[in-house]
Design brief:
mainly alpha; globular; about 325 residues
Length: about 325
């Protein structure tokens, strides 16, 4: 999941949009790759469950191995780890916020279809908008009201318990709430460190907590070669690749445009769920999901109207 960007600018009229430069086209392709590879995560997690793994084991291996690989990237870039207060706050974000939403996410996948979970989790941009409006005690603007209205309408249609998925729906909504609070709490902290530095500390902290829980409950490691291959896919394909390509894409097209393109993630998850898990979503659920994703589009277009002349920053 990628957080919604803020501070965007007046977009030119549709007939005045300039052609993409080679750098921008590469950025678009990188963010699309990020959305597709991240979309593979819930499918791979379901396969890991089938191999006998549990949530603590999956998350322990995922975050610990990803942190070690990113630490290698940090060394190649000759960047040091954050220090002092920034290090402590990033560690807390990983140990509490990121771990909490990750456990809720992979647990939701046991009780509800991957597509339904993905659509509900994507309520988080609207939740962030609502929380910001509530905390700042400002009058709700028309754009904010439109976002919240679309999101709530989508929630009402999508989250109607069906087929014994009520617990999965509740956990997916919990993910959206935790992730929204995580974004708001970490906004300033992550400005004090590079994305790679932040990711290393957050993944390491989440890995430590997940490993502790795994050891208390007893490890349920992969039992087959295919299981280890699935775990490698979770670490590399669904964690390392999307993180790296998203960051590289942001550097080329800016955070706002990258966030808009990330709306592909839940759509990819729905399609992969149909292709690989034989899942299906009813017309009411699909309509609700469409309203939720429409709220993200409205939010993104509002951001794009606030971009400074000359386009998004390059880094």
């Amino acid at each position: 999941m990628n957080s919604p960007a803020s501070e965007l600018a007046e977009a030119p009229a549709p007939d005045a949009l300039p052609a993409l430069t080679a750098r921008q086209a590469t950025g678009v392709a990188l963010v699309v790759i990020s959305a597709i590879t991240f979309g593979a995560l819930p499918i791979l997690v379901r396969f890991a469950y089938d191999d006998g793994m549990d949530a603590p084991t999956i998350l322990s291996l995922r975050f610990t191995l990803a942190a070690l690989l990113l630490l290698g990237v940090l060394a190649l870039r000759k960047e040091a780890l954050p220090r002092g207060r920034v290090l402590m706050l990033l560690f807390l974000m990983g140990a509490v916020g990121y771990t909490g939403q990750a456990f809720a996410y992979v647990s939701a996948l046991k009780y509800a279809s991957t597509g339904l979970v993905a659509l509900l989790v994507y309520l988080y941009p609207a939740i962030v908008v609502g929380l910001v409006a509530a905390v700042s005690r400002q009058r709700i603007q028309p754009l904010t009201a439109a976002v919240l209205g679309l999101a709530l309408g989508g929630l009402a249609l999508t989250a109607s318990p069906q087929g014994g998925q009520a617990l999965g729906i509740a956990l997916a909504l919990l993910v959206a709430v935790i992730y929204s609070l995580y974004i708001m709490a970490g906004d300033r902290v992550m400005r004090s460190a590079s994305a790679i530095q932040s990711s290393v500390v957050i993944f390491a902290a989440a890995g430590m907590v997940a490993t502790l829980i795994m050891l208390v409950r007893g490890p349920q490691l992969p039992t087959t070669g295919a299981g280890w291959a699935i775990m490698a896919g979770i670490v590399v394909i669904a964690t390392m690749v999307p993180v790296a390509t998203f960051l590289a894409g942001v550097a080329r097209i800016g955070p706002a445009n990258a966030s808009m393109l990330s709306i592909l993630e839940p759509l990819v998850i729905v399609v992969l769920g149909v292709l690989f898990l034989g899942e299906s979503l009813g017309p009411v659920t699909l309509l609700g999901g469409a309203l939720i994703l429409a709220s993200v589009v409205v939010l993104g277009l509002g951001q794009l109207r606030r971009l400074p002349p000359g386009g998004p920053p390059a880094g």
